[in-house]
Input
Amino acid sequence: MITVVNQPTYIPWIGYFRLMDLADTFVFYDDVQLSVQSWQQRNRIKTANGVQWLTIPIIRDFGQRICDVKIDYTQDWRRKHWETIKQAYSKTPYFNTYAPYIDEIYRVKWFLLSDYTMYITRILAMLLDIKMPKIYTSSAIFAEGSKTDRLISLLKNVGTTEYISGQAAKKYIEPEKFEKAGIKLTWFEYNHPIYPQIRGEFVPYLSAIDLLMNTGEKAIEYIRV
Output
């Protein structure tokens, strides 16, 4: 049973979906502390004026867990995000195909940031034809300990035999504990594909919306390179 654990992310990049595609079980790690100006609330798209950030405003409360973060609706950010996406991708080959789905994403109103971003991730995964794993949230799974011990406890509770981890975790993960627990630890390496993209030179590491609008049903082939 291959498991991936990732924090909920706003309109994630394509590597995020490759991890989801590889997993039998995918856990949204939503009960850890939110990082300021993190991928949990923002991401990038390519516009006529270059790369632009789209950021969800939140109601800040120091030290809050991701699953407790509330979205700030005093700002008209949903309309602005959708208008920015429309202007950026209206001339792409597959805009008319996917625009109704993205439009709907910006019509719904979720109270909590993680609920909203997890909803978006599921919609985009469907549109990208990702092989959908079984999905959990860490806040709903009992786990003991801290750091690596807590992660291993979580993994055991969902029946993990192999854990795929991002490269950034090498800074703090303790591999010997995985070996002792009988869980294979695999480091995720992703060679970002170059795909057709409007407006000048190719820009990597954008939201997967960029890949979807430019390549349509072929997006999954680029994700799985």
